[in-house]
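Progress note, sequence design subtask.
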């Protein structure tokens, strides 16, 4: 990761899960898709966001 500046593919892959809303479950509009991400990706993206936030705030 450090050598190429990229995350391994297995870290960035997610799974899409459908969550039912209220109403008729046979209507596609009553389902909400969410992406379940790898825990490592979530932790790393949080760390990166925390590190770059002060830099972004200075430029705004």
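Output:
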């Amino acid at each position: 990761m450090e050598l190429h500046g990229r995350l391994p593919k297995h870290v960035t892959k997610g799974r899409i899960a459908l969550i039912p809303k209220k109403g008729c479950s046979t209507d596609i509009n009553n389902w909400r898709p969410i992406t379940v991400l790898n825990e490592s990706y979530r932790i790393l993206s949080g760390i990166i966001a925390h590190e770059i936030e002060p830099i972004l705030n200075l430029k705004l």
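Residues 39-59 form the longest helix (21 residues). Work on this subtask will continue into the next period as scheduled.
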